[in-house]
Amino acid sequence: MTILSLPLQNHLFSSTALPKPRRFPLCATKVRMSLQESAPSIAVVGVTGAVGQEFLSVLSDRDFPYRSIKMLASKRSAGRRFTFEEKEYVVEELTPESFDGVDIALFSAGGSISREFGPIAVDRGTIVVDNSSAFRMDEKVPLVIPEVNPEAMEGIKLGMGKGALIANPNCSTIICLMAATPLHRRAKVLRMVVSTYQAASGAGAAAMEELEQQTREVLEGRPPTCKIFKEQYAFNLFSHNASILSNGYNEEEMKMVKETRKIWNDKDVKVTATCIRVPVMRAHAESVNLQFEKPLDEDTARDILKNAPGVVVIDDRAANHFPTPLEVSNRDDVAVGRIRRDLSQDGNQGLDIFVCGDQIRKGAALNAVQIAEMLL
Any bridge partners for residue 22, and if so which? Predict the structure, then answer.
């Protein structure tokens, strides 16, 4: 059993215990592909963050093949040591030279770092899978959810002799489209209305720590510490902390609008969103209303979703049991429930669904590693 010393990425909401260190199980009898000389060399940029740590978890869980792996972070984090898959690593400071000999780089260090170092890595022959918003709307950069639009990566493979950039969509967009796309393929979505209920994990490890700290403080009758968010987070909810734009929408909401159109390759689809922060430690929830071009009844929709890759249906009306953030935390699949006809529309032209997905897992790290798998 290998223990990674950096906490939080596996933590569910708890008012009692601190997060436990992430553990990476190994099968001693299994010959890992990672030992093969033909496997790619990897770099994880932003390895000390919540998503960076989840990159490692997913790489291990999915037996991703690599011959070497670099752990990269800021100068402040350089020198930290930890064990991953029974080998000790030292976190290295991110520099242009970091990408020499690196085949695939998984980035999750923020937009400014991606804008600076992403092109540098590409120039040195590295294929970059970037988790920030820096390149998502660049027409030359594919924006990919492997289950949704793998064709966007056509022509990008290891061994092609040059680097490339691939963008990971916003977590809310990924979670939404994992459920909406199978229905869109059958009946074509004309309009989509999304309301999100977003966990602390979407704002990183520091926000998760602050939610736990605030919860303790409020329960003890003390004023809450508000460093990450301006609002009290514990026992409260508020509009997403992204900047408000001139049209009244915030940046998170407009990401869903623009990214959906790019991923679906449909500039005419109408999308509107309201994004809310809720005091949940990990995993986002979304209420999604869909208007279709062709009729689609709820029974057919349920069957479509049951057979959709990466989707699990939790839709037990008799027991009033539907998806929750706790059920999907640390899980790969996106859960869908509350599948019902939109009574405000005539016939079967509309549906309401409720979706939950782990923001750090499928909403970030897993999606990026799946993209990397498509490069092999």
Answer: 4
Does 172-359 carry CATH code 3.40.50.620? no
CB atoms within 10 A of CB 34: 18
CA distance 40 to 159: 10
Q: Which amino acid is at 349?
A: Q
pLDDT tens digits, one per residue of 98-151 = 999 999 999 999 999 999 999 999 999 999 999 999 999 999 999 999 999 999
Per 3-state DSSP, the chain is made up of helix, strand and coil in percentages (nearest 5) of 30, 25, 45
Contact present, 84 and 23 (Cβ < 8 Å): no
Give the CATH number of domain 2-134.
3.40.50.720
CB atoms within 10 A of CB 235: 11
Tell me the pLDDT band of 17, cut-offs 50, 70 and 90: very low
Catalytic residues: 171, 284
Domain ranges of the chain: 2-134, 172-359
